[in-house]
């Protein structure tokens, strides 16, 4: 285990539903990330939080809404998603945002939008 | 825009041989290059990081090279074992105009045959 826990592991939701993904780390890290991984595509960085402040939002549609209530927890709120949003959503954390720090990933949430 | 190519989508090799995976990049001068391993249904796990001024880095059976002139990194697994079968991702990290960059490739799926 990497020390980053994501729940749920699997989620099936309708296009009109509202759901949330949860990520938790107890590594004492100051930076947390949401990534989207689709088949045959590179990991896409969605959001970056540093010291609980959102520092990057990479042109992600507003139907994805992140929340970082404290340095150990990160949420991704989902509403009115589209079938093309089906993917593996990965949370990661790192000591800080320095480019020479390794990222610790959770196991991901496999999301299916029907 | 920055681009990473991992030139083989899949690679099959015989147990005991050396596996060599390639990561090429364009339109970017990263300060660091990282390699991750990802097993099916799981998040990536960090393996090695190499700096732009390092030519080579080793860790047990793993070796990474970084050629900033060719804009290429090679990742070697010596004496490969079936347990090494996984997808391997390279990631470029650095800063551009004060913005942190963390760019992943699509990965190479390695299968080591017994």
Protein described:
The complex is a heterodimer of chains A (114) and B (114). With 114 residues, chain A is mostly beta strands. Chain A contains no helices and 11 strands. In chain A, strands 2, 4, 5, 6, 9, 10 and 11 form a 7-stranded mixed sheet that branches. A 4-stranded antiparallel sheet of chain A has the order 1-3-8-7, with no helix packed on it. In chain A, strand 7 (64-70) and strand 8 (73-79) form a beta hairpin. The mean pLDDT of chain A is 92. Chain B is mostly beta strands and 114 residues long. Chain B has no helices and 11 strands. In chain B, strands 2, 4, 5, 9, 10 and 11 form a 6-stranded mixed sheet that branches. Chain A binds chain B through residues 2, 4, 6, 33, 40-43, 45, 48, 56, 90, 92, 97, 99-100, 102-108, 110, and chain B through 4, 9, 30-32, 34, 36, 41-46, 49, 51, 89, 91, 93-95, 99-107.
Short description:
The complex is a heterodimer of chains A (114) and B (114). Chain A is mainly β and 114 residues long.
Kindly estimate the percentage of residues of chain B that lie in beta strands according to DSSP: over 45%
Shape of chain A from CA axes?
globular
- Global Rg of chain A: 13 Å
Mean pLDDT of chain A: 92
Radius of gyration of chain B over alpha carbons?
14 Å
**Average pLDDT figure of chain B:** 91
Could you state the order of secondary-structure elements of chain A as H and E?
EEEEEEEEEEE
**Number of distinct helices of chain B:** 0
- Name the poorly predicted regions of chain A: none
Count the DSSP helices of chain A.
0
List strands and helices in order, with pairings:
The complex is a heterodimer of chains A (114) and B (114).
Chain A (H helix, E strand, L loop, with lengths): L3 E4 L2 E4 L4 E8 L5 E7 L6 E7 L2 E5 L6 E7 L2 E7 L7 E8 L9 E2 L3 E5 L1
Chain B lengths: L2 E4 L3 E5 L4 E8 L5 E7 L6 E7 L4 E4 L2 E6 L4 E6 L8 E11 L2 E6 L3 E6 L1
